Amino acid sequence: MAPTSGTTLALGRGAYEGTLDISAHHAGLAAVEETTIDRYLLGITEVPSSWPDESLAAQAVAARTYLAWTLFRGRSINGNRYDYDICASQYCQVYRGPGGAAEPWASAVTDTLGEILFYEGRPAQALYSSSAGRRTRSVQDIWGGAGVPYLVAVDSPESEYTPYLRWELEVTADQFRRVFARGGYSFGDRINDVTLRSPGEGNGPEIVAVQTELGVTSIPATRFRAVFNVYGPDLYPGLMPAARPTGGRWPQTVLSYSFDVGYEPPQPSPHPMLPPGDSGSSGLLSVVGEGWGHGVGMSQWGAMAMASSGSTHEEILEHYYGLEPVDGSDALPERVRVGLLVEQPAITVTADGPFVLSAPGFDPIELPAGEWAFRRSGEGLRIVGPGGSGYDSPLFRPLRWQPL
After folding, report:
1. Segment 184-230, tens digit of pLDDT
2. Domain boundaries of the chain, sorted by first residue
3. Cα–chain center distance at 298
């Protein structure tokens, strides 16, 4: 789908102006947009455009650098499978198309044109997350490995700005046991203690040690967070994520890897007439942390705080990465392929103007605005126009593309 001048193709929460490729695969349908580097950066929606200009500029450089690093590293497994360079979700960078780019963000992208962070002659892995709390994390303390000098822990001056300075989760031992059983862990009948074991900053990942009558179960902090975030809301939607003191709920059950744990073991019943096996409580686990996200690299709320205090985007980047932005235009190609959706049973695209549809073995055809549905048809792909209508073209009699 190639939009004509002025046409936008809406898909999910995004609106795209590049060429949209819909393809059929054995695992489902995939949607990939091919666009220019500058249009891609305009479509990044990582921070509010109302933030100070220099924080937006720092974000623009970090996003451009992360894209350059991703392209230099090469495609992921899914990227190779579905023919894209970078995904559009929080697992890469949040991208929803350039159509809704506000003027301050567009200015940040333009004003930092070509600026990239390099380390030893290569684009740096410019990781960033929403909020680090009081201090960022060294990369080796989250994912292991040897670490790199530009992804080390530094103080983050965001305490007066971030809404994620402190968060807390409390669950009973029974709830804890049930959530982690979904994640493949068995703690037995009684949990005696839960502690966080840390080798110290810069020395590697932390683990959560769960002591039971069966022994000690060691859970990496990354896995501990993932299990709570994946299974907790499904099992206890009224409890997880927890309520915020200011109202509403936190965006995740365990917001970051910067946390500590405390545990109150079961207490015997104070009533002597009850059977000996009955307890007055089942135990209580508390998780108290700060920040939101992995905490490695630049803190977006920290950048906002520094910019609010008068720091330039160069000073923000130097603080969090220890690197200076330079012209890296030669490190990026002219175009990039962005994976918008993969493994979908059906995909619906709404065009607000005419576009050209091309398919292997068929002549291109210009089609009007409207809602266009792409669906699996046996082992191929079927296109349904607005209102289910057909068109006088061999492409619609019907078109079936074989999966890749």
Report:
1. 999 988 899 999 999 999 999 999 999 998 899 999 999 999 999 99
2. 1-124+323-404, 128-165+290-321, 167-288
3. 15
